[in-house]
Write a structure and sequence with these properties.
Elements lengths: L2 H21 L2 H25 L6 H19 L5 H9 L2 H10 L4 H26 L12 H24 L3 E3 L3 E5 H21 L5 H28 L15 H22 L2
Antiparallel strand pairs: 1-2
Length: 274
């Protein structure tokens, strides 16, 4: 199987699973995104270990799962907000456990473990608010905002790749990512804004101005997310975060834009009252 065909089939399969996880049912959403969270954390901690670090992989994954699960319980009305706060307080156990591990560089181990939570588990956990936008008045499942955000991110990433490949001459951040170009960002940004306009027609819970703001946030923070993941991989001297998706790299490689754009989008929707 040639590389292009493998990449295309993998991309279609990944997209199908993600869309199914968003739109079918809240429990399917929880299962799919919990799986993505665990896989992304495993890839991240694996990179840290290969680079010589010694993070608390099991503790980090358990803490991330409990945080996501408690937030899901809160947005569905099954758990009080206190459960979410309790899950966050579990981060303190990372410090306590490190006392008894007797490993070299304990502060670095703690820092790498906590970074996994804040870089991966926190943004993915906040996606719960995008599928239950009626909080706190009601807990109705409404997957279309998250689907719209996902479409914008995919449109931006695809457009940036195509325009960058065809027209890219001016490097965006050559020290970190030599192949990314300003032409790619502008081309992908145009496609993202057009997708935001389409979303306003498809998913009318938000006004067109809100979708355009979300598109702009994806362009800005999705770009930073991509660059930051490249910085992390470069720091660990690795090309891909993993091999879970043939032709695409790892799960973390596919989620890099999500991880930085999602928290800002959630904050924006809270700010405007949605």
């Amino acid at each position: 199987m040639n590389t292009l065909l493998k990449r295309s089939l993998t991309g279609l399969g990944y997209a199908a699973v993600l869309i199914a996880g968003i739109i079918i049912h809240p429990l399917i959403f929880a299962a799919v995104f919990l799986a993505l969270l665990v896989l992304a954390l495993m890839e991240y901690y694996r990179m840290v270990k290969l680079a010589g670090g010694d993070p608390q992989q099991i503790t980090g994954i358990i803490t991330g799962v409990l945080f996501f699960g408690s937030l899901f319980g809160y947005v569905t009305g099954r758990l009080p907000l206190f459960a979410v706060l309790s899950a966050v307080l579990l981060l303190s156990t990372i410090f306590i456990i490190e006392l008894y591990r007797k490993k070299p560089q304990p502060l670095a181990n703690i820092a790498f473990t906590l970074l996994g939570f804040f870089y991966i588990a926190l943004p993915l956990g906040l996606l719960n608010f995008l599928i239950f936008p009626g909080l706190p008045q009601n807990t109705s499942f409404y997957p279309w905002i998250l689907l719209g955000v996902t479409l914008i991110i995919w449109a931006f990433d695809t457009g940036a790749y195509l325009f960058g490949t065809a027209f890219g001459k001016h490097r965006l951040f050559e020290r970190i990512s030599p192949k990314k170009s300003w032409e790619g960002v502008f081309g992908g940004g145009t496609i993202a804004l057009l997708t935001g306009v389409l979303n306003a027609w498809l998913f009318q819970i938000l006004e067109i101005t809100d979708w355009l703001v979300i598109s702009a946030l994806v362009i800005i923070f999705g770009t930073f997310g991509d660059l930051i993941e490249s910085m992390i991989k470069r720091s660990f001297d690795m090309k891909d975060s993993g091999r879970f998706l043939p032709g695409h790299g790892g799960i973390l490689d596919r989620l890099d834009s999500f991880l930085f754009a999602a928290p800002v989008i959630v904050a924006w929707l809270f700010f405007i009252g949605n």
